[in-house]
Design a protein that fits this description.
The protein is mostly helical. It has a domain of 138 residues: Serine Threonine Protein Phosphatase 5, Tetratricopeptide repeat (Alpha Horseshoe). It has 15 helices and no strands. 28% of the residues are buried.
C-alpha cells in the first residue's frame, strides 16, 4: 500500500500523479462569467458617469482611467477624463493631443468639455509665458480655438469664459463676438462693450491684477462715446496702475491713451496730481503748461471780439 501523497518522493514511490482542478475550457468559462458579473454590477457607462461627477479622483480611479485610455485611445470619455484629472501636471501639447480630436468628432457635451479644458490650458500657458514669441504662439492657438468654437453652438457659460479669455489676450473684437453669443443665448439685453470691459477691469482689480485691469479700462476708454465716460475710464486705468505702485508704467500708459483728452482741462488737472504722486515733476509741469495754454486759447476769441468792438 502506497503512503499518503504528502509523504511520497518522486523516484522512490514512482511518479506523482498531478491533480487536475479545472481544464482550460472551464477556466475560460469562469473568466467570462466573472467579467459578465462585474459588467452587470459595475456597468462601464455608470462608472464613467460617476467619474465625470467627481471633482477629484483617487489613485484607483485614476489607474482605471489610464488603463481605459490605453486599451482604446479613441475612447473620447477616457481621453477627457484623463485630460481633466491630469490637467495640472500635463504639458499643453499632451492636452491638445487628447482634446483636439474630440473637437472634430465628439458629441456636443464632449466637445464642450474638450473646449473648456483646452481653453484653460491655453490661458495657463499665456500666464506663465515670459518670452514674447511663446506668448504670441499661445495667443495664436487660443485665437484659433475661439474662432473655431464660434462656428458651433456654445453654452452661455462657456461663451462667457471664452469672451473673458479673448479680452485678456487683447483679442477684443473676438471677445465682443463671443460676449454677444453669451448674451443672445441667455436672452439678456446686450451690454455696451465699454461697460463689459469696465466690469472685467473691476474684477481684475479685485484680484490685484493691476496691469490687466488697466488694459481693460484703457480699451473701454477707447470705445467710450461720451466724453465723461472716456474721462472716467481713462482715470480708472491710470489709477489701477498707481494702485499697484507701477508709477512709471502709469505715466507711460497715460501718454499713450490720452487721445482726444489731451486738451481736456479736467483730465489735465487730474494728470498734474498723478504725475506729482508718481514723483515726475517734469511731467506734471508739462501737463500744467498744456492746461494754461488751453485756458489762454479759450480766452483769445473773447479778447479778439472785444478788441474788434472797441472804437
Amino acid at each position: 500500500m502506497l503512503p499518503d501523497r504528502s509523504k511520497r518522493y518522486a523516484g522512490i514511490d514512482g511518479e506523482i500523479q498531478r491533480l487536475r482542478l479545472a481544464g482550460g475550457l472551464q477556466i475560460a468559462l469562469t473568466g467570462f462569467l466573472l467579467v459578465l458579473v462585474l459588467a452587470l454590477v459595475f456597468p462601464r457607462r455608470a462608472l464613467i458617469d460617476e467619474l465625470y461627477a467627481q471633482n477629484t479622483v483617487d489613485d484607483l480611479s485614476l489607474s482605471y482611467i489610464q488603463n481605459l485610455y490605453r486599451s482604446d485611445t479613441r475612447n473620447a470619455d477616457a481621453a477627457l477624463l484623463l485630460a481633466r484629472t491630469q490637467a495640472r501636471s500635463m504639458a499643453v501639447q499632451d492636452i491638445e493631443e487628447l482634446t483636439l480630436p474630440i473637437l472634430d468628432a465628439g458629441s456636443a457635451s464632449q466637445r464642450e468639455l474638450a473646449a473648456g479644458l483646452l481653453l484653460d490650458a491655453y490661458q495657463d500657458a499665456l500666464l506663465s509665458a515670459r518670452d514674447p514669441r511663446v506668448r504670441a504662439h499661445w495667443t495664436k492657438q487660443l485665437e484659433a480655438l475661439l474662432r473655431s468654437e464660434l462656428e458651433h453652438p456654445l453654452a452661455p457659460a462657456l461663451a462667457q469664459r471664452m469672451a473673458t479669455a479673448a479680452f485678456a489676450a487683447h483679442l477684443f473684437d473676438l471677445g465682443d463676438q463671443l460676449a454677444t453669443v453669451s448674451d443672445k443665448e441667455t436672452s439678456s439685453p446686450g451690454i455696451a462693450p465699454n461697460e463689459r470691459l469696465g466690469q472685467l477691469g473691476d474684477r481684475a482689480l479685485d484680484q490685484a491684477q493691476f496691469t490687466q485691469a488697466a488694459d481693460y479700462f484703457f480699451e473701454a476708454r477707447a470705445r467710450a462715446i461720451a466724453r465723461n465716460d472716456a474721462r472716467r475710464l481713462f482715470q480708472r486705468g491710470v489709477d489701477a496702475l498707481m494702485r499697484g505702485n507701477l508709477y512709471a508704467e502709469a505715466m507711460q500708459a497715460a501718454e499713450r491713451n490720452l487721445g482726444d483728452l489731451k486738451d481736456d482741462p479736467a483730465t489735465l488737472r487730474y494728470m498734474i496730481g498723478r504725475a506729482r504722486a508718481a514723483a515726475a515733476p517734469d511731467l506734471a509741469a508739462r501737463y500744467a503748461r498744456r492746461l494754461v495754454l488751453g485756458s489762454k486759447a479759450e480766452l483769445l476769441p473773447q479778447n479778439s471780439a472785444a478788441a474788434k468792438g472797441q472804437p
